[in-house]
Amino acid sequence: xxxxLYCEFFGFSERPFTLSPDPDMLFWTRDHKRAYSILEYGLMxxxxxTVVTGEVGTGKTTLVQALLRSxxxxxxxxxxxxxxxxxxxxxxxxLNALDLAPTAQQTYVELFQQFQDFVINSYAEGKRVxxxxxxxxxxxxxxxxxxxxxxxxxxxxxxxxxxxxxxQPELRTIIMQPExxxxxxxxxxTYHLNPLDRKTTHAYIQxxxxxxxxxxxxxxxxxxxxxxxxxxxxxxxxNKICDLALVYASGEEHKVVxxxxxxxxxxxxxxxxxxxxxxxLFKHAQDTGKAAE
Length: 293
Prior knowledge:
This protein is α/β, with parallel strands linked by helices.
């Protein structure tokens, strides 16, 4: 039975544990509420730099998507994901995110002038520019310092340009380096998202099951405890395990995912725990006799 067909078996309107960021399915843990408040605070106070970090799969990108829904029309947004490279590359990433289409022949000075003109013209039109960098840990110290230099466009009492950086925990480590002390001083607010604890994992899984028309009991409490252990509380990994567990359960025509279902996933090598954290392995259907996706 495919992952799509288990929805009919359980009576779901859609798959409750997809991996794509979905603000409609966002479960507001205490950490997520606080992180979102920090993002909102940065917007409202026009903070030059706001930073939110967390392990891979803790819901940072979903928070960004939720934030984008709430932004008013007086803001121009540039969303940059996985940007890498030097300062020329950085400006090209930024200009592309703002639909400004830089040419390959433009020098750094020309790129910067194009960006500065856009920010100032937007301000003249009553708008401010916000650049959101997802996976910002990939930028590195030198490029982060270049970002700080971009905020020098701001002048007077009004902030023409705001930066929001979202990334993995190493982003905090990079920012704390001595050579980035001036950058750190410009960070107005920051928050770190932690993995879910056992109680929150139970609430999270039941929330997503109910959100698609389920009862919330399609996965047993004992199975959820095991999922919590295997996932280390990382929401994205929880989603992967739950999705595959529902596939297995429906394939056996079991209306409830049990501990034995999760154990089967482990025995089949579909999920396993490493010393460095959770790891999900997908095996082909012909290897396991069951379709993972």
